[in-house]
Amino acid sequence: MNKRRWLLALAAFLPGLCVLAQAPAEVLSYSGSYEMKSPTEARYEVHLQVLVKDANGIGAATFSEFTDEFKTLSSFSGSITSGGKVVKKLRKQDVITQLQTASLAEKTYLNVYEPAASFPFIVEYDYTLDYRKAIATFPTFFPVPDFDIPLRQADYTLSVPASIPVRYKASLEPVRRTEKGREIYTWQFRDILATPEESGMPDALEWAPYVYACPAHFEYAGTSGSQESWKEIGAWNYGILPGDTALPEAVRRDISALVSGLDSDVDKLRAIYGYLKEHTRYVSIQLGIGGYVPASPEQVAATGFGDCKALSFYMKQLLAQAGILSDYALVSTRRKDLLADYASLGQMDHALLRVPLQQDTLWVECTNPSLPLGYAHSDVAGHQALLVLPEGGELVRIPDYPGQTGRDEMVIQVDLSRDGSAALSVRETARLDVSEPYVDFRSLKPADIQRKLLSGLQCHPDHFVFNGLNDNFTRYEGVPGYVPEVQLSYAFDSQDLARISADRMFVKLSPYARSLSYQKTARRHDFVVKHGCVFTDSITLTLPEGYDVEFLPEEVSRSTKLADFSFRAEASGRTVTLDFVLTVRAGRISPGEYDAFRELVKAANKVYGSTLVLKSTL
Q: What global pTM score does this model have?
């Protein structure tokens, strides 16, 4: 794994902490009032007042709403006040409307207004959204827009006909009342302190105020469904799948010819997976924005593109043409677990296929057919998924890789010269999720390969030579336990890996930059690592004639609940061997346990930044 991706991978659990001198903005008042007039019509009125103190607070005060054929922005007004005076009156014409998606089914628009004035200023919005033809969920209410933003007061009110039961999941219980045949739910939030952004934060639902709500029974574009259980949600999703599943005649001929003579379902699946890669491309239309209904196979075949729903359903029909059964499934890439005791549409943001084979069950990613068959990628491995079956929905768990973790192993040979230059050769092995960036590596141009592999170097590279790669990406044989792995080999020269001063040579311990961030201040929240990984560097330096080792960093061995780090160095004759091993385990620790983790990172940084000192004997 190149060093930039190495550090980006670590950033998932080791980002630094940005400490602001003051809150960049403050939500003074936020109220949302949603009135459901019928199962298919509603109005949502919003009032928002935000104090913006500096440029970092602009995002918290920016108006942004998606609209489509089911939701329109019917009114918009507001004002910007600076220095005690209203400097701008806002009208609907000030909102910029941009076409986001023009799918095979519908168009989606993003409506945006970004305020600007002398700091500090107050922006105030009043706007109305009208819903028609479909109400599957009520607006989600997250009154705190970002980290480091305090909230003075917020109110969210749902008013629905008494005949329509409401399901909700919220950070606090609502106040309920019945009035003129309507059930009214009100949530009130007061004086919410700013939450500083920390590394490895728990899920926002653990610390931020929120309200999720939906009608237990709904009508959507001429269909009706229930959200009383995942079984009923799955039944509705199955009922809206395209009724015409017929593939064009030319596609049927292609698939029949493609699998002719292939004996196993694994070989047939591999061939059809390649066909999907060659003949389609992915376009992003998110669930809940671009609609719930996949485009028909005929439409995908005609245009050659689709979103995750369309491509997954298309692949399902391609497999059926070859006699292979599969199940359409929905999953959240954001959370491993769907919200407990709250079955609802909109929690899932991705679609894929489950393909039961004779000895194994595959989860096939249809938006990126370059990913190896037999591998559940890092955005879905271990996640709950909803199978969309004729008999209704079924919650299942996509298999994870218990007892295994991603690995990035580097073996580096460094041949030093007396002038401080060096010839370096590198062999790298990446496995499991660490191998994902390499799935399309063979298609890159030479300049892109060099840039990716050499990013993060502490020295300037010359004369780069890529010796190629080997992988097992197409070697899935239909049995459980497959793990993707790739090996790369390359070499380059450097004129500045070492620095000479008088009779000494100062050599950077590692050719690659190492600086793992850590939180210096006391933690307020638990620290969560979602994906574990092991990084190993084995470096062998061959010293130039006439130099001996004067200083070699001491060995280090540290261990905590979530991580281990070790460093070992040995000099023998003209050879120095250096071994670094950093292991990070998925898990969770309390703020009090973070101190030990911090000390481990500091010890690792000290070693990674160390220098080997050689002294001339001539």
A: 0.90
